[in-house]
């Protein structure tokens, strides 16, 4: 059982998902938003996940927030929140109705039960438009430093020199190793940096491959915007990382890890160079195209036109208005 006290500050319950299969994107977005809100609105927050995962739990706790695993309704009745934030694609009607009893309800990228929310922020997925529904990449929540890099002029080089590989918190398909091997087969000696997340399970394999290519391997670095900005091409899975790269103006190749990401691709027909089902041939074909300067220049400009990195501030203002 939980031993909760009545909070001195307003409490937000964050119902979301994270793990080896789901990755860390939902949690990262909520952490980014809550870091901004906790001082603006004087609030605390408790994350609610279905299952306990030590890596995810420690990741959240290390950033100053509580986290509990269990039935969302039971947990909410214990902590008595003033607001409930849902960051998941499918919010059950019964859960949305119960959350409404506690106070304000804010949903992020939910395709169901939107009518029970005070604010719906669907930056990535399509939804029925209700009175307070805000859609499109202008409302995409990225860390505030990305807006600073968006302001900087991205220099697109004549030749590709630096490549950044990062496939989220877990990379269950182990695309990191697969792409690292493929990049190593090119005649050009690229300067490759590999970023690994807290749930990645194939560290020894990647270190072995990286040593042969003299590639750099980083685990949870705190300078992701800078690494992206300095790279010529980013290779990642379809998720927040894709849009972070677009925001700083770096051309990106995104690979769908699962059916959920393939569905997400269908929601965003404006995205380019997304590989729905990975094959070595398909990746090499697209990677070769990325060697073209004019293509990379157009992708750099296009990405920055779609994603300006100011979504965090817009969403904070929306929540302040209904608080």
**What is the total tally of β strands?**
13
Strand content: 15-25%
Distance between the termini: 30 Å
CATH architecture of the largest domain: 3-Layer(aba) Sandwich
* Main beta sheet: 7 strands, parallel
Strand order of the largest sheet: 3-2-1-4-5-6-7
Q: Radius of gyration over alpha carbons?
A: 20 Å
CATH class type of the largest domain: Alpha Beta
Q: Kindly state the mean pLDDT as a whole number? A: 90
Q: Strand-and-helix sequence, N→C?
A: EHEHEHEHEEEHEHEHEHEHEHEHHH
List the defining traits of the structure above.
323 residues, alpha/beta, Rossmann fold, seven-stranded parallel sheet, six-stranded parallel sheet, globular, disordered N terminus
Structure description:
The protein contains 13 helices and 13 strands. With 323 residues, the chain is of the alpha/beta class. It has two domains: 10-142 and 310-322, 3-Layer(aba) Sandwich (Rossmann fold); 146-306, Rossmann fold (3-Layer(aba) Sandwich). The protein has a seven-stranded parallel beta sheet with strand order 3-2-1-4-5-6-7, sandwiched between helices. The chain is globular.
